Amino acid sequence: xxxxxxxDSTHAKAxxxxxxxxxxxxxxxxxxxxxxxxxxxxxEIFPYAMRSKxxxxxxxxxxxxxIILAFANPIALGNIGWHYYIFFCxxxxxxxxxxxxxxxxxxxxxxxxxxxVFDGPSPMTASAVVEKDGEGTVKSEQAEYxx
Length: 147
Known about the structure:
By secondary structure, the chain is mainly α. It is about 65% helix and about 10% strand. Strands 1-2 form a two-stranded antiparallel sheet. The longest helix has 30 residues, at about 50-80.
């Protein structure tokens, strides 16, 4: 963003090449880190019965936003120039802060463990042992979850 600002006022060829190089470097790392999560994270967090519906809603939102941005980006860049990159820097920071603080970590967990985080214990993976005394009242309960 800073290089774009300086290039806008000086029009130096070397600085223009630097801006292009930084854009490629940014998107190289962005696409390795964030783009696969658009499909990976929803696939992990949705239960099997809801997975296709959840991915449909998620991809619908992604493609609608891409269509809107395909028309809005050229207009905004034409009107405010390099300042438009500041919007994306702020937006990326908000997405990062939201992801860091709200989304549970799923790395290193099985799909069943992730399902418990989002849905609670499942009767399909849980078994309970209930001990009763002679009168039929519950003396102790023990639940065991299979992960």
